[in-house]
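Field log, afternoon session.

UNIT: design team B
ACTIVITY: writing a sequence onto a fixed backbone
BACKBONE:
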């Protein structure tokens, strides 16, 4: 079964408090989401393999470690996932970025893909799916399914906050996927919003209603 890793770093908790705050404006909200994503990137990349190389310091030659060339990819779910991309790229500037766009069919309530642009060597990459909120889990579950259908085999999901219901939906469908969270909230309300949550992440990122 995939792991659920809830970050406990004080900086993440501190910044998430202001992400949640209704008084935080769009500009500050975007900056905070970027910063939290960058901090979370430390944990989600913790198990990257290393290899030893030899370098020359100003004083002598030495052996030291670098990431072993493992191919990575990040895949934000449009549109709210875009807010997390810059923070990830601050630490992983050469990573390939794919995009998946989904909307919910008003009749079936099922996620429908409307846009998909991914690295051509998808099956060779470790992928990190980005979505600020894991609420019902429908969009994340569908995005991971689409990636697997296109050949992806190693996928992680990274969200700022989640409801237990969404975590269960993703793991019921994709038990091999590790889920990384800034915070695990109490529950969903009757309208499918996370409580206490942070509202609609996309609207708050882009100033829409």
């Amino acid at each position: 079964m995939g792991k659920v890793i809830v970050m406990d770093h004080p900086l993440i908790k501190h910044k998430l408090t202001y992400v949640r705050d209704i008084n935080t404006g769009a500009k500050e909200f975007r900056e905070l989401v970027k910063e939290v994503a960058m901090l979370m990137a430390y944990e989600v990349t913790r198990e990257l393999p290393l290899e030893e190389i030899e370098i020359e310091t100003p004083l002598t030659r030495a052996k030291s470690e670098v990431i072993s060339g493992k191919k990575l990819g990040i895949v934000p779910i449009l549109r709210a996932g875009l807010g997390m991309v810059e923070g990830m790229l601050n630490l992983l500037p050469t990573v390939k970025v794919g995009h998946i766009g989904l909307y919910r069919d008003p009749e079936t309530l099922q996620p429908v893909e409307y846009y998909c642009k991914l690295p051509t060597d998808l099956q060779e990459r470790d992928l990190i799916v980005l979505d600020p909120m894991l609420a019902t889990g429908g969009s994340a579950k569908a995005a991971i399914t689409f990636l697997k259908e296109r050949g992806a085999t190693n996928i992680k999901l990274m969200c700022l906050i989640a409801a237990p219901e969404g975590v269960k939906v993703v793991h019921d469908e994709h038990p091999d996927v590790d889920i990384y969270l800034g915070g695990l909230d109490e529950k969903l309300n009757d309208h499918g919003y996370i409580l206490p949550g942070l509202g609609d992440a996309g609207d708050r990122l882009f100033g829409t209603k």
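LOG NOTE: The two ends are 38 Å apart (CA to CA).
NEXT ACTIVITY: expression trials, pending approval
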